[in-house]
Amino acid sequence: MTSAQTLRVRVAKRQASGQDIALFTLVSADGAQLPPFEAGAHIDVHLPGATGQEIIRQYSLCGNPADRSHYRIGVLRDANSRGGSVAVHAHLKEGVELSISAPRNHFPLITGAGAGKAYLFGGGIGVTPMIAMAHTLHKTGMDFEFHYSSRSPSHMAFSEELGAAPYAARVHKHFDENAPTPAQQRADAAAILGAAPPGAHVYVCGPKGYMDWVMATAREQGFPAERIHYEFFQVEVKKGGDSFTVVAQASGKEVVVEAEDTIANALERIGIRVQVSCEQGICGTCLTNVLEGTPDHRDEYQTDEEKAANEQITICCSRSLTPRLVLDL
Question: Is the pTM of this model over 0.90?
Answer without folding.
Answer: no
